[in-house]
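Archive maintenance. Older records in this collection stored only the sequence; we are now back-filling the structure field for every entry so that each record is complete. The fields below show one back-filled record exactly as it appears after the update. Entries are processed alphabetically, and Zinc carboxypeptidase A 1 is next in the queue.

ARCHIVE ENTRY
Title: Zinc carboxypeptidase A 1
Organism field: Papilio machaon
Length field: 463
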Amino acid sequence: MFLKIFTVLLIIVTFVNTSKVTFNGHRVYKVIPNNDNEKEVIINTQKQGIGELWLDQFDVRDGVRITVAPEKNQQFLDTMNKNDIEYKEVIADLQQVIDDQLKSASRSDRSTSFLSFDWDRYHTLDEIYNWLDQLQVNYPNIVTTVVMGRSVENREIKGIKINYNPNRNTTLIGMIEGTLHAREWIVPATATWIIKEFLTSTDPEMKALAKNIEWHIFPVVNPDGYVYTFTTHRMWRKNRSTRNFTSCASTGVDDDMSNGVDLNRNFDFAWMEVGASDNPCTNTFAGPFALSEPEARAVADYVLTLNNQGRLIYYFGLHSYTQLIVVPYSHITAEESAKLINYADMYEIAVRGAEKLKERFGTEYRVGVSADIMYPMSGTSFDWVKNVTDVPVSFLIELRDLGEYGFLLPASQIIPNNLEIMDALLEIDRTTRRLGYYYSGTNNLISSLTLIVFSIFVKLFVN
Ligand SMILES: *[C@@H]1O[C@H](CO)[C@@H](O)[C@H](O)[C@H]1NC(C)=O
Ligand SMILES: *[C@@H]1O[C@H](CO)[C@@H](O)[C@H](O)[C@H]1NC(C)=O
Ligand SMILES: *[C@@H]1O[C@H](CO)[C@@H](O)[C@H](O)[C@H]1NC(C)=O
Ligand SMILES: *[C@@H]1O[C@H](CO)[C@@H](O)[C@H](O)[C@H]1NC(C)=O
Ligand SMILES: [Zn+2]
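Back-filled structure field:
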């Protein structure tokens, strides 16, 4: 009798523990809408629960991926055929790709490891946080771990400060914010690589970039969501907020979608104006009000504090995927942005970065305001930071790839991605200095004079 009850309990416990969402047999199709009507049909397949789109918004002629469960497959094919929409199966079994992503990349040596960490596989939150703690122990005079706040589920939002020169008079500050969106695993893999380079690189320019600026780097600002992508739902994007819980089952989407706020729509600048949703059952739910979420508030408060402590020079928000360097502002056009801020300079800085990035492996990044290269959106962190601090350079960077794997980028691409991003960062910094936003030993009076002469020369010829 006792044993029986125990067995039943065990079964219940096992059942609860295995509530991990799996995608066995789920196919991924690439569809290309040729007109607004076809686009509408594709959006409706999601609304009707036939499939889940990989991108929240897309344009006519964009290739968009859509995940389709086995039991919906025939319905999906019928809908596409009936409407004469081109489709192509690009992944036969999504779970296989999810499992593959957890495997280490093969390698011939361990040269890329640093303390307990390497970049041949993706790491859990605990591994990342443990590594940050080790850095403080190993670089006591340079690295300080910082907790900027706590998440809804009370996890620390932990990052580090890198400061080679605590006694300097004017502190130039750079901040890198990673993983507002939970499922974008390449982001913490990139942020941690940047930290490694700033601490260990022997390249003189890299060392100068690390030392000229006091860096604040937070690989995972949405820790609850990140953990959730490991334990339960690999494709999760939002935080785990339940405040606005409404059952979404009736709308045809996964009922779990009822939880969570899109943190990159929750900031207090142009909040809910465009490209954000007031419907909790969507992936771009902006929250009940601006800065409603503790994670977004923590980032905002931290940025305001930094802005009082020194001169903020760089703000980079890292995301994936689509290979973009996005320049503010996201809710308006480039022309309108140029009237408000140093848009032209930021655009040039981003273009130079993207050109340099391409040199190593040929990877192409596009540059511009979100409305031009993605879609208009509002309530994002990097726009808010630009507006509130007028930091000279504030970019949202969408890392690899273009959608072949999307959020499921194989571990073998981590290091190539990181190498090209470092190339871009160095070039971004060179250009920022060349345009006079700050000076360091590496751009002395002579190069400034050269620039002035060159500018006059160009102006004469262009006019
Ligand atoms: C998500 O947002 C809710 C507020 O709606 C908040 O209470 C919760 O802590 C957030 N969860 C995470 C993981 O940030
Ligand atoms: C910092 O400023 C003080 C006076 O404001 C000056 O005496 C000192 O030389 C400066 N130190 C550096 C490193 O520039
Ligand atoms: C979300 O919850 C808040 C109260 O916490 C409420 O004011 C707001 O109207 C709700 N929003 C939606 C879309 O349900
Ligand atoms: C910030 O936004 C406000 C309101 O849109 C605008 O008036 C102001 O010029 C902006 N400031 C900057 C630096 O963009
Ligand atoms: Zn994102």
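Update note: Residues 168-169 surround 2-acetamido-2-deoxy-beta-D-glucopyranose (ligand 2) (CB under 6 Å). The chain has two domains: 21-101, 108-227+275-434.
Entry marked complete.
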